[in-house]
């Protein structure tokens, strides 16, 4: 059963005083309608007088019924509402009357009759009657009207027994109407406290036999409520605190606990609300802490039964957290500064936790509840029937089915059993409410930039998604959070997330995710802060891992994350069996995670320098550590070497794009030890261009787990090209060393150039021949297709200079034309063969010029 909601009018920042308007014909008279509209349709503002204006109706003329009372109960449910909806502090009578009317005596008698009639409707002492005269005064001058007003007003006051502050005159003019309404509201506000003071005086004068705690609590609440209506919030706060103290002192049985908690909730809300309004913020927080200490630690009780009582108690605690969070947010809008340590988000989060606890209890009841046709056909006893409402007083927090029984002191056993059945049959988990509260908390934390608190909320949201069997959404949240923890080096927080991910993978029968998760749980590096038997846990996960390789269904965890029925458990086992029959391959990416396999790589040439020529031998050292207490045997180890200077193709898979693949077969990894494997290759495999080539290990893959002459269809791999390289205390947290690289120089052409005269001087207009010799200095091989490119420049380090082209020219030996460069080709250059290189120069301007000869 949900907790009793605090009525909206009690949650308002200011309680509205009730003022009734009489004598207005809003249907037939436009000005009367304008008066009513001006009173009732104003926008609520902070400085607006807190009053509620209603037309006097038949429901205000109903005398209170003499209902059956129960003095053992605290507060009638309808008592506060009567002062908001029925009992007015002021009744205003509007009457159209001009001082100069010919039938003055008749009108005067009519006014007297209406005033007396209104007085006859008043059932509470202190309600004041105010007479408002609406005057037209057409054809009468202001001087004439003023002469008549004093005497005529005195006659009305005398015959109606009114004081001078109870008679007002307003002109029938809509232009000036708003200003007159504002004046009337101020007058009403000044006169209203007298009514509530009279009510307080009457309540205080009532005797309380033997200082009965319930009567004292009721008296203090009523006085506090009326003081709040009187706008005396400081006195109201004092009375609310006294009433709360009496509520704390009450000792009642289980059957009355629901009523006491309901009253404690109402009193605590009003105390915190008024404390915030009076800028007593510290007192508001102190009161709520006291409320938690006093009532949250109580036993849930056993009425109607222990299960239902626990659910109701969690619902009630959730309500307290949410109510205070809303009050806190309202105080923030009034310039209270929140902090990361103390903000409304914490209270929303606590409310979500209590709702989640209730959902767990409800789910257990739903799983074991059995419906009975005989009880299903019986009438609903949880709702209060109209005959009961017309005969009995209903008390705040009173259980509906106990209204009659509490008054007579009777307990109907059959009714109590039916109530328990109907409560359980109508109870369902409310997961959406948990998500709403968590989202409200997340909104607050996001505003305060409390990132760690938001991470905690994500975990709680994932837990509730798991409880509601929304496994895909929970998996997405936990997976993103896990990656974030790895990135932020929060390795110690990862183990609980992995357990939840493993449970989700198990119920989803997702072999890929299950292997990825259990590969991390099998190593002991995730248990640095866990207060558990680490060896026992790692052994369990290790054997489950090996069983998966053997196509044996993994053992379910007893972690409490999942709550599966027998039917759901059997369905999951059947799906695992079908999955193993299909023998689907798996490929597990262990990059950038802490797992039972650790890989480090190193690539280097046999020479000491990190730069090698294409003819040098390149070595790749692979270190693989097996971190579980079982020997592992893989079919093959495959590594791929990649050219980092090559332009990648996005449409090509990484495994097909790599330049070189190297393989070793029959890989054995002893338990709890590191095994090294060395690969060698010649660098000329990457010498496909004239520029240097930079290479590194791109991927490492262990393919095919070998078990009893059977090779499992799957692999573990590391994408070293995307390793982030995050470390903890200077050590790579996943054992993957950042990939080293080797630069391979291109082949050098064995050509030597010999120029007879390196410096030559000649005159303007003179043609000079440059003599040089090309020689193949290789003693073992000839060269084909040697190309010689000759250019001119005015700088010794620039091979192309536009200025030089206008100063000096080469003469083409074939055409005789003046050119800026020459291309000369030589075919079949034998070993140690020499070839002459001749070309002519001609200049038109003085200067220093450089000849550049490039051979390829």
Please give the structural blueprint.
Layout (H helix, E strand, L loop, with lengths): L7 H4 L5 E6 L7 H11 L10 E5 L23 H7 L4 E7 L7 H18 L6 E8 L6 H19 L6 E5 L5 H28 L8 H17 L3 H17 L4 H24 L3 H16 L9 H28 L10 H25 L4 H4 L9 H4 L13 H6 L4 H14 L4 H17 L3 H17 L3 H17 L6 H15 L2 H11 L12 H16 L16 H17 L3 E4 L7 E9 L5 E3 L3 E10 L5 E12 L10 H4 L2 E10 L3 E10 L10 E15 L2 E2 L2 E6 L7 E2 L2 E2 L8 E5 L5 E5 L11 E10 L9 E8 L8 H4 L2 E4 L6 E2 L1 E6 L7 E10 L6 E6 L1
Parallel strand pairs: 1-2, 1-3, 3-4, 4-5, 6-15, 8-18
Antiparallel strand pairs: 7-9, 9-12, 10-11, 10-13, 13-14, 13-15, 13-18, 16-17, 19-20, 20-25, 21-24, 21-26, 22-23, 22-25
Helix pairs in contact: 4-5, 6-7, 7-8, 8-9, 9-10, 9-11, 11-12, 12-17, 12-18, 17-18, 18-19, 19-20, 20-21, 21-22
What does this structure look like?
With 856 residues, the chain is an alpha+beta fold. Helix content is 42%, strand content 20%. The strands form six sheets. Strands 6, 8, 10, 11, 13, 14, 15 and 18 form an eight-stranded mixed beta sheet that branches. The longest helix is centred in the N-terminal third of the chain and has 28 residues, at 177-204. The radius of gyration is 47 Å and the shape is elongated. It starts with 7 loop residues before the first helix and ends with a strand. This is Foie-gras_1 domain-containing protein.
